[in-house]
Amino acid sequence: VTRARKRFREILFGSVCVPAASIFDPLSARIAHMLGWEVCKLSGSVAKAADLAVPDGVPMANISDMVDICRRITRVADVSLIVDADDGGGGALNVLRTVQELEAAGVSAIEIEDNQVPPRIQGASSRHALLVSKEEHVGKLKAAVAARRDADTVIVARTSALHQLPLDEALDRIRDYSRTGVEAIMLPGLPPRGLADIVALHQASDLPLCLLGLPLEATKDEAFLAANNVRIRFLGLGTYKVAVKAIHDTLKHLKNGGSPADLRDREASEELLQAVTRIPELLEWERTYVVQ
Amino acid sequence: VTRARKRFREILFGSVCVPAASIFDPLSARIAHMLGWEVCKLSGSVAKAADLAVPDGVPMANISDMVDICRRITRVADVSLIVDADDGGGGALNVLRTVQELEAAGVSAIEIEDNQVPPRIQGASSRHALLVSKEEHVGKLKAAVAARRDADTVIVARTSALHQLPLDEALDRIRDYSRTGVEAIMLPGLPPRGLADIVALHQASDLPLCLLGLPLEATKDEAFLAANNVRIRFLGLGTYKVAVKAIHDTLKHLKNGGSPADLRDREASEELLQAVTRIPELLEWERTYVVQ
Amino acid sequence: VTRARKRFREILFGSVCVPAASIFDPLSARIAHMLGWEVCKLSGSVAKAADLAVPDGVPMANISDMVDICRRITRVADVSLIVDADDGGGGALNVLRTVQELEAAGVSAIEIEDNQVPPRIQGASSRHALLVSKEEHVGKLKAAVAARRDADTVIVARTSALHQLPLDEALDRIRDYSRTGVEAIMLPGLPPRGLADIVALHQASDLPLCLLGLPLEATKDEAFLAANNVRIRFLGLGTYKVAVKAIHDTLKHLKNGGSPADLRDREASEELLQAVTRIPELLEWERTYVVQ
Amino acid sequence: VTRARKRFREILFGSVCVPAASIFDPLSARIAHMLGWEVCKLSGSVAKAADLAVPDGVPMANISDMVDICRRITRVADVSLIVDADDGGGGALNVLRTVQELEAAGVSAIEIEDNQVPPRIQGASSRHALLVSKEEHVGKLKAAVAARRDADTVIVARTSALHQLPLDEALDRIRDYSRTGVEAIMLPGLPPRGLADIVALHQASDLPLCLLGLPLEATKDEAFLAANNVRIRFLGLGTYKVAVKAIHDTLKHLKNGGSPADLRDREASEELLQAVTRIPELLEWERTYVVQ
């Protein structure tokens, strides 16, 4: 955990923009680890879908659910895990528990966003209505920073202000968020004014940025990324979506009477399966510590 | 749970051989449920691999791990779940806890096998050495039957006796197992003497059979299946193996700099994704119970 | 579970008022079971205090926490458990998950109250402000009833309307609650107009009543209890409070250098300790099922 | 966690013998923390009794159960926790998982003992038969040391060799255990030859000692303790035993129709109850971080 947090800080305060693997459960995290991904992002949407079959954006899942998932992930994958903590579970009091439990579950970075979770799937008619007031949110971010027991844990201010407010007002918020002790700013998607908003954001805050939804050309423009302090970029939720289709197609094939033999080409090799369950390392462990 | 158990009994004591979906986590169970699979089988190997990244056949995972996985499965999928409880966790005392906790987790059928879990990955040089004595195992099966709190829960005697013992001795065991109150016999794979062993088994026990590893021609020979009381057949671990490859290939593609856009064809449709998280049902629930 | 639910219904729809044991964790539930208590009540306040060290009346604990506690209680104690589910976890959507998970954890009755959980310890200046609107709450109670998977699970409408509203308005609410399919009404304490309110409540609803805070003379007035359909009465949170003091005094004595020998008189007997861990039953189990 | 581990090391490698509080659940750990206890000891016997109602010394509880209890303890109590991991869960392979999961649960020290857990309550006729071979146990201890992810976690070699073997053979074992990288030796009770065995043990190993069952005069003989490197001493299981009796007497009193009012003197004060749930700290937190 300590090492994973330190590696994450090196990336965040380094000079290169690193992509993060989107994972959704222990298995996908384990495979990401095997492939050498350093940073993994656990979005609430896919975590809750895979474990609880509930949609995101309604409060049917809670922080204890997310803590359990994170704990099961960090025990099988030595990666730096960024976790989506929604609105921190409520007010500053909830943020205290949220941060401490996610930290105990071994995550490296915790996102607290300035949007409330809507009480219904349909959400509020105006997303704007769901923005927590600036004063309240600044208090929550300070609480999150103070709640940490390990100073290496990073609190990330995830904000949809640029999506919901006039630019000036949004930047004013982000400026205030940046003074709370949080160590990164995250945008949930490309803001309405595109890359220009990112430039403006960087002028308002010198914190490193974590971005979702960058257009392809931007991800290749290393000068742009470096100039604007973009340190982590996300690549969408493909891992989960591909897994859902693969599982679905397999079970549908068999349900329709298809032969298991037809699946061979789509199945992992024996070597890959053994790597997932750590058989090579465990055999070595046996050779070292078990009397023959 | 009650309904799932009753449906399972109808299949077991019916007249048709039904295939079971192999699932390994809540997500695959949820998708099996959506596709109309009635019976799902949770093998220890894939359950432990996906959740804990540990191999099967060593005691690194325990019954509490399996209980947790079953509980998370039954809360998202209304299916009849058969769960692999290895050797029941140890002796007759452990069987008591194992059966009661798996039952509380909502499973429909619990397999207790007559092999011990080997202490090492390499296993014993002779699998034979791992067979629990007949007397001890009969006591464990009786204990499993007595431990149930719901008489609808099915205890399944899973046996590798046919694989490890001379035919007579194996049938003698199975005859004794059949008198303990268990309600089905399961074979972990096609026995050494092939279908002839299944015929012999059926002559020794009139309990319904659950079989793994049936050759393709046998699965299509309905007269054979009916004549030998074969009620559930398994189709291998394809679901897990396909998911591992899909996740691996996706994360490898992105790690190598591939574009997220290239994944589109392999991703689940929006409709499928919404079905996983029950959005249609939940919206209907909101329309019915939330004041507009 | 099935039997515990049926026993609870017999009490609820019987003719006698039964006291419920206040328990707060698996140990106290186990001891209540040993002493023959049929009904146990798990209040959120003591459950959260003992397991999480968080106060009641703030949303620091969530439904997953309560589910975990209930599950651990029902596995060691064969009692009918009434559990405090606060406001059901939020709106009608949350009620769906809350009811299904508590049911899966083996409880017999689930209380859903018409007060929101305040976001802060200090609460709202006026408790009145926290009452959920009648229409919304009726929807939530209907949702709770519909969410059950076992028709024997009892949904209890816990209401503080009598404490916060004029009598007419309160009775109007309770009348509407009574038509939702809930099967009992619970008051969190003696209402402001005392026993007269209970008489009025009974005239408004013929559902059985569960009461906290009855004055001593009322608990002895069997004619009053019978006439007003009072079926379950609570006896305060003494179990928890006594345990806290016992643990505190012991650890303080030893911290101050006191001798462990001084504690002897306050320690449970060996026989009692063995009963907690079921040693007599387990030895009998071994004699029956383990080959000697 | 980091600080708790460092504080524990200071005691272990300091010059004073410190008593450890015996705790059995989050509530008792929280109260120990409030009273200023620095070191808490979680014995398997009371942990399993309180949470699972199963006896010690049979394998009905497993390492996942203990991990869950430890995690719930460390989230409410900032203490250095020593946990009893029995035989480490089995061989060297199990030790790997046991150590990593207990470490992730925030404990400071993990005891691995050289006795196997007997398969039955009655145990083996000779305890001697249950001693793991020296070679195997040395491998397990080396595995435990290597499994740590935080070098500050202490592995404790708990041994009953002095109770079961001739002195020379016992000391030979302890000498070998001491060279595996473990950082303390623990005795489960006063050895057969009394304090003389402790002197002999200290001559065989210069590791700090953790002792259970010291006679009263020895605990006061600071010269003896210092001379023999005794750093932690245990005070029996009084906390649990007193709690069981307090809960039992309360529930029995009420079951017999006794008045709740009679319990007043035995109940914790309001101030103590508020301290358990951290109300003073949380109110201060609200004043600091919640916009008024």
Q: Which features does this protein show?
A:
globular; 14 helices; alpha/beta; eight-stranded parallel beta barrel; 292 residues; homotetramer
Q: Can you give a write-up of this model?
A:
The structure is a homotetramer of 292-residue chains. Chain A has helices spanning 2-12, 26-34, 44-52, 63-74, 92-104, 134-147, 161-164, 167-178, 195-204, 216-220, 222-227, 238-255, 270-276, 279-289; strands at residues 18-23, 39-42, 80-84, 109-113, 154-158, 184-187, 209-211, 230-234. Chain A has 292 residues and is an alpha/beta fold. Helix content of chain A is 48%, strand content 13%. The model of chain A has no long low-confidence stretch (mean pLDDT 94). Chains in contact: A-B, A-C, A-D, B-C, B-D, C-D. At the A-B interface, α2, α3, α12, α13 and α14 of A face α2, α3, α12, α13 and α14 of B.
Layout: helices, strands, pairs:
4 copies of one chain form a homotetramer.
Chain A (H helix, E strand, L loop, with lengths): L1 H11 L5 E6 L2 H9 L4 E4 L1 H9 L10 H12 L5 E5 L7 H13 L4 E5 L20 H14 L6 E5 L2 H4 L2 H12 L5 E4 L7 H10 L4 E3 L4 H5 L1 H6 L2 E5 L3 H18 L14 H7 L2 H11 L3
Parallel strand pairs in A: 1-2, 1-8, 2-3, 3-4, 4-5, 5-6, 6-7, 7-8
Helix pairs in contact in A: 2-4, 4-5, 5-6, 8-9
What general form of chain A does the structure show? globular
Radius of gyration of chain A: 20 Å
Query: Largest sheet of chain A, order of strands side by side?
Result: 1-2-3-4-5-6-7-8
Largest sheet of chain A: 8 strands, parallel, barrel
Question: Largest chain interface and its two residue counts?
Answer: A-B, 68 and 68 residues
State the share of residues found in helices of chain A, binned by percent.
40-55%
Beta-strand level of the residues of chain A, as a percent range?
A: 5-15%
Oligomer: homotetramer
What is the tally of helical segments of chain A?
Answer: 14
Order of helices and strands of chain A: HEHEHHEHEHEHHEHEHHEHHH
Question: Which structural category do the helix and sheet elements of chain A fall into?
Answer: alpha/beta
The low-confidence parts of chain A are none
pLDDT average of chain A, as an integer? 94
List how many beta strands of chain A DSSP finds: 8
- How far the N terminus sits from the C terminus of chain A, by CA atoms, comes to 33 Å
